[in-house]
Each structure stands twice: as C-alpha cells, then as structure tokens.
Amino acid sequence: MKYGGVGGGDIKLTAALGFCFGLNALAAILFFALLLACIYVVATRQRSIPLAVFLCIGFFICAGVLFIYGLTC
Asked: So where does this one cross the membrane (predicted)?
C-alpha cells in the first residue's frame, strides 16, 4: 500500500499467487494480507508500507489454515 499506488512487484506477486493457487485461495490471501496491513498502518501511522511482505504473510496464514483443516481450494 505504497503512497501513490501499488508497486509493480506487488502486482506480479499477486498475479503469481493467483495463477498458482487459484482465485479462491487468492481471495483468502488478499483478505489476510490487507487485514494485517491495515492493522500495521494504524499501529505505526506510516503512510507507505511494502505490501509484498503482507502478501507473503497472508499466504502463510492461508496455507497454515488449509493445512490444519486438511482443505484444498
């Protein structure tokens, strides 16, 4: 959530995650990533943050939930 727009790397990472894991998993990954990013922005009051870090964290949360419950998307 860079001030002025999303960077090119964020778009490429999101496209790669969507291609590899499908739209259902991508929706969950984006939900977790943006939720954590919003919490981080409120807590630190920064105007510019790297979204790719939160996309990776969102992926690991989604993968952990799927692994624990034995689900597939």
From this structure: 15-42, 49-71
Tens-place pLDDT, residues 20-60: 888 888 999 999 999 999 999 999 988 888 888 999 999 99
Contacts of 56 (CB under 8 A, 6+ apart): 13
Domain count, the chain: 1
Given a contact cutoff of 8 angstroms between Cβ atoms, the answer to whether 55 and 13 are in contact is yes
The answer to whether residue 44 sits within a structural domain is yes
Task: Retrieve residue 6's tokens.
Answer: 């999303």
Residue 64: give the domain boundaries.
Answer: 8-69
As a whole number of angstroms, the distance between CA 6 and CA 40 comes to 17
